[in-house]
Design a protein that fits this description.
CATH architecture of the largest domain: Ribbon
CATH topology of the largest domain: Laminin
InterPro entries: EGF, EGF-like_Ca-bd_dom, EGF-type_Asp/Asn_hydroxyl_site, EGF_Ca-bd_CS, Growth_fac_rcpt_cys_sf, NELL2-like_EGF, Nephronectin_domain
Strand content: 35-45%
Protein name: EGF-like domain-containing protein
Mean pLDDT: 93
Strand order of the largest sheet: 1-2
Helix content: under 10%
GO molecular function: calcium ion binding
CATH class of the largest domain: Mainly Beta
Organism: Nematostella vectensis (Starlet sea anemone)
Largest sheet: 2 strands, antiparallel
Oligomer: single chain
Structural class: mainly beta
Family: Belongs to the EGF domain peptide family.
Number of domains: 4
CATH superfamily of the largest domain: Laminin
Length: about 220
């Protein structure tokens, strides 16, 4: 009698029945352990007897197991490769931050001229916090992520360095022809010459002709 065919055996539902002459033999299926009449599931994830990638999770199932790649990795679970979120664009970095890939994840760092945690970056106002490199004789203008220096009136240079313009020497002053020009830091001063009076930019002679031809001072 083939007990395996007739079903007249006591093998576990998770075992194979093997007919023998005058009897039968029970063997637990792969993924189970026992004497064939009593078979229990083997947790391969606990025993370590699985082929999941080191960057995958092992999930035990009845009689087997399933491998799933960890977040930040892609593959079938048995072979998992790192996902470069900085290349795929699947990251949460701010538009003013740099994305740096690392194994299984990524890191965000605000660019120069910005501050924050990388996921959120705000502009640094270098003009307000005095972290700029402008000359004391320049005006600082904040820009997104940076700043611009512009020499003040009466000075020339690149903004980081500004030197005084000698308006008296280069004749860019507005003094009267009858005045003396004195250079000052960032400007100039006009003084009417002897025999003239005025604000220096306009000078009038101290000698005025009268209608009768006489002169007075």
């Amino acid at each position: 009698i083939d007990e395996c065919v007739t079903g007249n055996h006591t093998c576990d539902k998770n075992a194979r029945c093997n007919n023998t002459i005058g009897s039968y033999h029970c063997t637990c299926n792969p993924g189970f352990s026992g004497d064939g009449r009593n078979c229990t599931d083997i947790d391969e994830c606990v025993t370590g007897n699985h082929t999941c990638d080191k960057n995958a999770r092992c999930n035990n199932t009845i009689g087997s197991y399933h491998c799933t790649c960890n977040p930040g990795f892609s593959g079938d679970g048995r072979n998992c490769t790192d996902i470069d979120e900085c290349v795929t664009g699947n990251h949460a970095c701010d538009k003013n931050a740099r994305c740096r890939n690392n194994i299984g994840s990524h890191h965000c760092t605000c660019k120069s001229g910005f501050y924050g945690n990388g996921a959120s970056c705000d502009d640094i106002d270098e003009c307000r916090d005095a972290s700029h490199k402008c000359s004391p004789h320049a005006i600082c203008y904040n820009t997104l992520g940076s700043f611009v220096c512009s020499c003040k009136d009466g000075f020339r240079g690149n903004g980081a360095y500004c030197r005084d313009i000698d308006e008296c020497r280069d004749a860019s002053h507005k003094c009267s022809l009858h005045a003396t020009c004195y250079n000052t830091l960032g400007s100039f001063r006009c003084s009417c010459k002897v025999g003239f009076h005025g604000d220096g930019k306009t000078c009038h002679s101290n000698v005025a002709k009268l209608e009768h031809g006489k002169c007075c001072i």
